[in-house]
Structure formats: C-alpha cells, structure tokens
Amino acid sequence: MGEMNVWSIDARTGEKVEAVATAATEAEVDAAAVRAAQVAPVLVGAGLEGRARLLRAMADEIEKDGDAIVAAADRESALGETRLRGELARSAYQLRLFAQVLEDGGYLELTIDHPDPNAIPAPRPDLRRMLIPVGPVAVFSASNFPLAFSVPGGDTASAIAAGCPVVVKAHSGHPYTSQLCAAALRRAAASVALPEDVVQVIHGRAGGTRLVQHPAIQAVGFTGSLGGGRALYDLACARPTPIPFYGELGSINPFVVTPAAAAERAEAIATGLAGSFTLGIGQFCTKPGLVFVPAGGDGQRLVAALADAAAKIPGGPMLTPSIRDGFLSGAAARAALPGVRVALAADGQTAPHVIVASASTLDDVLLEECFGPLVVVVEYADEDELFAALSRVPGSLTATVHCGQDEGGAGSFADRVAQRVSEQAGRILFNGYPTGVAVTWAQHHGGPYPATTFPHHTSVGTTAIRRFLRPVAYQDAPDGLLPAELREDNPLGLPRRVDGQYRLDG
Predict the structure, then answer these.
(1) Whole-angstrom Cα distance, residue 280 to residue 275?
(2) How far apart are CA 39 and CA 33, in angstroms?
(3) Fewer CB within 10 A of the end CB, N or C, for the chain?
(4) Residue of 28, 61, 87, 248 with catalytic role
(5) What is the CATH number of domain 24-249+455-468?
(6) Which tens digit of pLDDT belongs to each residue from 5-51?
(7) Would you call 495 helix, strand, or coil by DSSP?
(8) Active-site residue among 28, 87, 181, 285?
(9) Are 437 and 96 in contact (CB under 8 A)?
(10) Could you confirm whether 285 is annotated as catalytic?
(11) pLDDT of residue 3
(12) Domain made up of 254-430: CATH architecture
C-alpha cells in the first residue's frame, strides 16, 4: 500500500476540497493495532468509574467542537445542519448513556453460586461468573451517519464502555469529519489521564482489510454494504483464530398495511410513508423499502396518495457519487421489469420513486435493497398471497404492521401478520414508521442475515456493549484473587445474582 492522499470532497459539487490524511500503509495499520493492544490494560484498569468519566469527557469534547464538526459533516455529506446537529446530540447522548451503563453495573451479569456439599448430582464448587472485555476492536464507519455510526458513534461508545480500545476505519465519504471527531475523543482521553490511543483512526480500503486481519484485533463493528461487509466477514472468519464480525449489511424492511387499516386511513398512511422512505434522501438503513397493500380500491387509493405525497418531496444530492450512481441504476432496473407499474419516477434524478408490482409476480430484484428514495409497493389479493410473498423477504432490521382499530387482539389478521414478520426482523413496529432508532435500554437494532451477521446482538441501545465482552467463570478462587466485582463483600456495590436470587445491593 503506497502513500495516497485522502481527499475531503464536497458532496454537493463533487469537487475535491482538501487532502486531510493519507491512506494507511500496512506498517501503519499494524502499529495502530499494536498500540491499541498496549493501552488495553490501562483502559480496563480505569474501572467502571474511570471509563464513565472518559465517556462523559468524550461527549463534552465533541460538543465543544460541534460547530466545526457539523460544518465539515455537512460539506462532506450534504445532510444539512439541522439533521447533523441532531446527530451530534445523539452521539453525545449515547456516550453519556454508556457512562450510566457502567455506573449501573448490571451489564456485567455478575453471578455467584456458593459451594454446596449436598448438591445433586455432585457437590457444587464455588463458582463466580462475569463478563470481561475481549480486547481491541475495529470499527468501520457508515456513509449515511457521519457521526452517530462513525468515529464517535455507538460502536465506539459501547466498545470503550466495555473496556476495549478502538481503531476506527474512517469512511471515505467523510474523512475530515472523522479527523475532527477523533481529535476531540483523543483530547477527552488525555483530559482524564488516559492514553489518547484508546481511540485511533485510519483511512483507506486496503487499511481496513489489513485491520480485520491483524491478530491484535479481537472483534469488528461494521455498518455498510452487503458486498463489502460480507467480504470482511469472511476475512474475519478465515483468520487462524476467527473473531466475531458484527456487521450491519443492508435491509429491505417490510411494511404491511392490512385491509382494515387501508380502509380506515389510506391517505394518512401514505403521507407518513412518503416522509419515511424519502427521509435523508432515502439513505436510512431502516427505510421502509417494501410495502404490502391490499389489491383493489383501498390499496389503489393508498398508492395514489403515496405518489402524490412523495411527488411534493424534493430530491437532492446523495452521500457520494457512487451511491448516487447505484441508486439511479437500481431505480432504472426496477422500473424496466416486466409487470411493474411506475407510479412515480424522475428519470436520471435522485427524487422519489414509487414502483408497484403484484405479489403473484414479485421479482427477486424487487426484494433487494435499493439505497435511496425508492419504495416498492406490492399488492396482495388475500392472506395466502401476502404470506407467500413475505416468505421470500430477506432478513431485515425492522418490520412494520399497520392495522385497523379492531385488529388489536390475539388471533386477528394483524396479529397473524406480526407473528409472521417477527421471524425475519429485529424490531416490529405497529402503526408507525421505522426510520429513526431511539437510543434506549430496550432498543434492538439488528436482524436476521443479510440485515446483520449476528441477529442476537444490537448496534443501538445499551445492550450493544454485549458484543465486546466474553464470559469468564472462576472456580474456588481465593477471595483476594477475585476481581473486585466478584468478591464476597461486593466493594463496588454492584447488582449480582447470588445463589439464584437477584440482589440490587449485591
């Protein structure tokens, strides 16, 4: 890998603005991974309190640099100041939320089983179990969230909280933003007397590949394309010692409107749906991409209202030239399919598109994500036809059910639909719209492949920390040799399950 400039590009004009870094060489990637391994014991040794201070300092520093960060992100993404101010606030919030996770301590899953000589089938030893950090983590930034899913994003926040140093592979679409954010996070580390190298940034596709393969890296967080993510996932699995690759790779996000819902509020659903599938020029991983409506009058009314509402929403520049080109070619390919009706299109423009097809003739291409402001509407004749079509929908991050006022009970049509889509999505919404993911304790942002590589885990919400931890059990350990979290007197006052009983006071 020879030295090569990394350019900050104006997303609105496509022009190069300035060289902000160089693509990392193999030696530079190796050195970053080694430094991460060297500072890992220091980060772990900072304890829950020290890492909580670090996370709050990181939130403070990105807020202090907020004007410069937002300006850079807007230039490189064209997402607009309002959206990016919200994303900066979200990034700071989730950093502080993980500080609360550390102070709560429940994430450690502390469990103690005292010895029992009368246990059956054999005497039980003293066993104490907890979760410990896996070690240095590689994080791959997302194109569509230059802050919340990038350098100061949820992967970084949860890994640092777990006690894992982070090496971020910056996205080529926003390298200057990445540099500014990394500088802020590193200043935060220094301000609480921790090594700056708890967070590092590298640039370049080849550097990212090298990073996944480096033996010091123990897990990977990735948000990006199916092709790129799958290639890196395969590399992680092919290592002499394979490591977990937590990839978010793309999602079609089915959206089902029952006949009762269409009859009651077709126009209202259409208006909300138009706003959802065009939000951020359709560049959200949770965009509803495949909408099922009943064939006939109410469904046709909904489609017409959807086309009318979407036609009033302007297009705009997309994140990168390659994403724009991919959207335009994908929209054209779908519009040209036999049996497809184009309800709304703007040839050669990144404006909203509405494509309509029948469930009985649903083409495989229509079941693939089209990243951008395009929605595929599928008309179904009856429940059997709907369920047959749903069985072909790939794993998704979300699934949405819009039901009628009298469909809120068990055994209803809406209930049967919800049970069906729960098999293929990680978050099930009712009478809402999936764009926008709240950062909370109960959130799950994941789903069956190809939405993610590990549907058991989330990249949003407090349980995202679980990806970067592994369990260890101590048997008959002298109390003085146990981690403080598992000692008999519970000096940290953490919640623990003791002999089967959960105790908030340990």
Answers:
(1) 10
(2) 10
(3) N
(4) 248
(5) 3.40.605.10
(6) 999 999 999 999 999 999 999 999 999 999 999 999 999 999 999 99
(7) coil
(8) 285
(9) no
(10) yes
(11) 64
(12) 3-Layer(aba) Sandwich (3.40)
